[in-house]
Design brief:
- The protein has 353 residues and is α/β, with parallel strands linked by helices.
- 19% of the residues lie in helices and 25% in strands.
- The strands form five sheets. A six-stranded antiparallel β-sheet has the order 8-7-12-5-6-9, covered by helices on one side. It has a five-stranded parallel β-sheet with strand order 15-14-13-16-17, sandwiched between helices. A two-stranded antiparallel sheet has the order 1-4.
- Helix 2 links the parallel strand 13 and strand 14.
- The longest helix has 16 residues.
- The radius of gyration is 20 Å and the shape is globular.
Length: 353
C-alpha cells in the first residue's frame, strides 16, 4: 500500500519555511549507569478480548530508558543555542523552536519529556514548580552530536475571565523569550508512555494538535532522516496533524521533505480548522479528517502491529471516539471495550492536556 501526502487547500506561499540540515554521524548511548530497563509485561501473546485479534508479543526489551538523571532540586544548567519563531505573522499565537546544549549530560530517547524550572518565585513566594515539555528532537539532537535537545513551545497568553486582564503563562513566556547563551534549569528526562515501539516494522498512527507534534517530529526524524546503525524503520507511519491556520503548521518543510522521500512508508494528513471544511461543511478538526479514512483506520486498528499515539489537546480523545465508535458499532463491535484493551496492551498511547 503506497502512502502519500494529503495536503488539501494549503496555500504554500503562506507557509513559514524552516530548513534544518540533518546530517552527521551517530553513536550508541554508551554510559548506562543511570539507564533503567523497560519492564517486560509478558512474553506471551495477548488477545484483544472478544475479537480474536492477537497482539504482537513484546520481545524481551534490550532498550534502556534514562530516567531522572537530573531532579528538580538538582537541575542541569543547559545553555540556549538558538530560539526561533516557527509560525507565520498571522498565526494565532507564537510558537518557538529552541535548542539547548546539554554537553551530552542529559541523555534521553524519543518520546520522553524534560522539566523546566522557571526562575523567580510564585505568588506565594515559593520557587516555581517544574513544568514538563515533550522533547522535539531525536536522542542525537538537531545538531546530531548527542549534545543537544530541542523543545517546541507555544507562548501562553490569555484573558482572565473574572477580571478581563491579560495573563501570561510563566514558563512558556520565559522559554519563548530566551536568547542564545541564556542558561536554563532543566530536569529529567521523564516518561515511558510515549516511547516509540521497538518493532521496526510497526504501523504507527500519530494524532497531534499544535505543539503536540513535538514527540512525533522526533519519531519521524529517527525513522526517515537519520542513519542509525541499530535502527532501520521498515514499517508505515501516518500522521494526522491539526492546527488552526496554514501559518500554524509547524515543521512543514521537514514533514513534506520526509513524505516526498518516503512515499511508500509515510503519510500525512492535515486538519486546518479555520481554513478547511469537511464534506458536511463543518470545521476540519482531526476527527473530521480521520472520518474520511475511517474504514482504512478500522482495518489498521485491528492489525497486531499497529500503535496509535495521541499528543495535544484533550479534546482529541473524544474526537477519536466520535470517529471510531460508529464504525465498530456497524460491525457489531464495542469500540469502548476495544479501546480499553488497546490501552491495556500499550497499543493506544495518550498524552493530552
Amino acid at each position: 500500500m503506497a502512502f502519500v501526502a494529503s495536503c488539501a487547500n494549503i496555500s504554500t506561499h503562506k507557509i513559514q519555511r524552516e530548513r534544518r540540515a540533518i546530517c552527521g554521524t551517530h553513536r550508541y548511548l554508551r554510559d548506562a549507569s543511570t539507564l533503567i530497563p523497560l519492564k517486560v509485561v509478558s512474553n506471551e501473546y495477548v488477545s484483544r478480548k472478544s475479537y480474536g485479534v492477537r497482539m504482537a508479543a513484546p520481545a524481551s526489551s534490550k532498550r534502556e530508558v534514562p530516567l531522572n538523571i537530573f531532579r528538580p532540586n538538582k537541575p542541569f544548567e543547559a545553555t540556549v543555542l538558538s530560539n526561533e519563531l516557527i509560525v507565520g505573522e498571522d498565526a494565532p499565537g507564537e510558537t518557538w523552536h529552541m535548542i539547548f546544549n546539554t554537553d551530552g549530560a542529559l541523555r534521553y530517547i524519543e518520546g520522553q519529556s524534560i522539566g523546566v524550572i522557571p526562575p523567580g518565585l510564585d505568588e506565594k513566594g515559593k520557587p516555581h514548580k517544574v513544568r514538563l515539555y515533550s522533547i522535539a528532537s531525536t536522542s542525537h539532537g538537531d545538531h546530531q552530536d548527542d549534545k543537544t535537545l530541542s523543545l517546541c513551545v507555544k507562548r501562553l497568553v490569555y484573558t482572565d475571565p473574572s477580571t478581563g486582564e491579560e495573563r501570561r503563562g510563566v514558563c512558556s513566556n520565559y522559554l519563548c523569550d530566551l536568547k542564545a547563551n541564556d542558561k536554563v534549569s532543566i530536569s529529567g528526562p521523564v516518561g515511558t508512555v510515549m516511547l516509540m515501539p521497538e518493532d521496526q516494522k510497526a504501523n504507527i498512527i500519530m494524532l497531534a494538535t499544535g505543539t503536540g507534534i513535538a514527540p512525533f517530529r522526533a519519531f519521524l526524524l529517527k525513522a526517515f532522516m537519520e542513519n542509525n546503525p541499530d535502527y532501520h524503520f521498515q514499517g508505515n507511519m501516518w500522521l494526522f496533524f491539526g492546527v488552526p491556520t496554514t501559518s500554524s503548521l509547524l515543521y512543514y518543510d521537514e514533514l513534506e521533505k520526509m513524505v516526498k522521500e518516503n512515499p511508500n512508508q509515510l503519510r500525512i494528513d492535515y486538519a486546518i480548522s479555520r481554513e478547511q471544511k469537511d464534506a458536511n461543511g463543518k470545521k476540519m478538526y482531526i476527527q473530521n479528517r480521520m472520518a474520511e479514512y475511517k474504514e482504512e483506520l478500522y482495518e489498521m486498528f485491528h492489525q497486531p502491529n499497529t500503535y496509535v499515539y495521541m499528543c495535544g489537546l484533550k479534546g482529541m480523545e473524544s474526537g477519536l471516539d466520535e470517529v471510531m465508535g460508529p464504525v465498530f458499532e456497524e460491525r457489531g463491535e464495542d469500540w469502548q471495550e476495544f479501546r480499553k484493551q488497546m490501552k491495556k496492551d500499550k497499543h493506544l498511547l495518550i498524552e493530552t492536556y
